[in-house]
Amino acid sequence: MPAYITSAMIRFMQNGTPQTDYDALAARIKAWGRALGFQAVGISDTHLDIAEKHLLQWLADDQHGAMDYMAKHGAKRARPAELVPGTLRVISLRMNYYPQHAKDTYEVSADGSRAFISRYALGRDYHKVLRHRLEKLAQQIRSEIACQCRVFTDSAPVLEVELAQKAHLGWRGKHTLLLSREQGSWFFLGEIFIDLPLPVDAPQENHCGTCSACMDICPTQAITAPYQLDARRCISYLTIELKGSIPVELRPLIGNRIYGCDDCQLACPWNRFAQQTIEPDFAVRHGLDDVALAELFAWDEATFHHKLAGSAIHRIGYEQWLRNIAVALGNAPAAKQVLTALQAGSQHPSLLVREHVAWALQRHSYPRKQAQIP
Ligand code: B12
Ligand code: SF4
Ligand code: SF4
Nearest bound ligand to CA 209? Predict the structure, then answer.
């Protein structure tokens, strides 16, 4: 006897047989999802057996680095019905984020004195945007039929790419992200776990073929084999997830990327078909698409909190923000404003910041004593 009774069971007990036309309901859910701003909606079952093996191997190899939360929930991450008892289906949704009117990505990447921030983080924190929309959709479903549904996006222990792939939202690229022929990969994923036996969609065919552009371009060779990523080497991990000191040997490879990295997506030929977002929330804020490293490094803590409140970047905190900019300044051409900014930072109260500033000054051939290596 299970410890839970799902709403599907209650309906069955009340009516003897389920009366609902689930095909029609699935079609309505997809239409509601699109009306709420999602570009695609699909449905899958909850079986992730092969993915679970890969996930456990990835964890056993320590490829998650310091992301302890990845190991915390064990196999639950790959077992939706254990995470939320009663779950029969997962509704996956994707939403485009590439902002309109952002400064040309290649120009910013190529100018070492300017900051490169991943396209997904130039506007409002997507967790808030997606969660709000998913909740709206869940409410709409509940108002139509008695059911239990729970929404997730990114932060929860869910294998989102794998579920979205099963739900026909795209295929997993060799860089490990999901992509589609119509929209490339510049989108976020979210899910609704539901206890209704909705009809499932068929997975899409993989269209990577012999291409390996994402693997070839990766500055740190973090994509160790097709579909496998060693997070410890990924610049996204180093600048966002890693809290302490960035490994010295990887710092020069980070270039001017101060928050996340988009190189594997920029190299992908399918992103030629990507469409920009129409969400005002993802529009660029505070000129973050085109700003000098030295200018950002000069922000005091109050400015950091003021300008980045509501942005995903805010989550890393001021100290880590300065750490990242210090590394980028170390990789920047040795202009006067770069050196002046670094010299000002060499007195910073945080040991973490001072250590990265000292490394940066050394890169610009500052004598060890003057660079004040801690
Ligand atoms: C942890 C995490 C990271 C980590 C690790 C990424 C990774 N690939 O594992 C770091 C910090 C590096 C990261 C970076 C980024 N992330 Co991230 N991340 C996540 C998170 C929270 C979990 C991913 C996960 O479970 N990883 C564990 C690994 C084992 O799982 P997996 O990637 O699914 O691995 C599968 C395959 O590799 C395969 N596999 C493994 N071994 C083998 C071996 C063989 C032989 C084969 C065939 C397959 C195979 O099976 C595995 C299990 O399914 C998800 C959200 C979520 N809850 O799912 C977002 C998520 C994947 N990230 C996202 C984004 C946008 C990014 C960045 C682009 C951000 C940026 N611009 O900096 C980068 C991209 C880097 C990259 N190339 O992946 C989006 C991706 C959207 C999309 N289009 O797919 C997600 C879905 C968040 C969201 N809700 O939108 N991320
Ligand atoms: S995000 Fe950057 S560092 Fe990470 S895998 Fe892609 S190209 Fe490599
Ligand atoms: S760059 Fe090539 S290999 Fe990588 S995801 Fe895109 S199509 Fe696939």
Answer: 3
Question: Is the pTM value of this prediction over 0.85?
Answer: yes
CA nearest neighbour of 330 among 248, 259, 265: 248
Residues 209-266 pLDDT 10s: 999 999 999 999 999 999 999 999 999 999 999 999 999 999 999 999 999 999 999 9
Residue 214 in contact with ligand 3 by CB distance below 6 A? yes
Cα of 32 vs centre of ligand 3, distance in Å, is 31
**Which of 174, 194, 214 is a domain's end point?**
194
For the chain, how many structural domains are there in total?
A: 2
The ligand 2 atom nearest the CA atom of 265: 6
Whether residues 300 and 180 share a domain: the answer is no
Q: Which residues form the catalytic set? A: 154
Q: State the closest ligand 2 atom to the C-alpha of 223, by its place in the atom list counted from 1.
A: 5
pLDDT for residue 1? 36
Could you list the residue range(s) of the whole structural domain that residue 367 is in? 292-374
